[in-house]
Specification:
Elements: E1 2-7, E2 14-19, H1 32-45, H2 48-52, H3 70-89, H4 92-98, H5 103-109
Length: about 110
Amino acid sequence: MLFTSFTNSSSSTLVKKAEGIKTPPKFDGINFPIWKVKMTVFLQSLGRRVAKAVTKPFSIPIGDKDTWSAIATKEFDANAKTHYALLQALNDDDIARVIHLNLPTRFRYT
């Protein structure tokens, strides 16, 4: 984990702020190929299943969540993380344009 130190001017105390890598790269509407590479690496940093979620279609497991297999639960969780990361990378206008799409698989083909 990275740390940035800064001084609080009111109390002159040293504060350490953690800067994690859990924030996806923001898409600014230009230079999609560069953003796609950054986003791919970001998803890979979240785990193999999360990165793989953009390469295959996803379907919600059948039945109550308590009856899902361990693999189905892990795949569902990975897909949710992928959706969250992609939505966090977009601004509200872009989200409105793509919210109806299956984001992880659309990301793969764009």
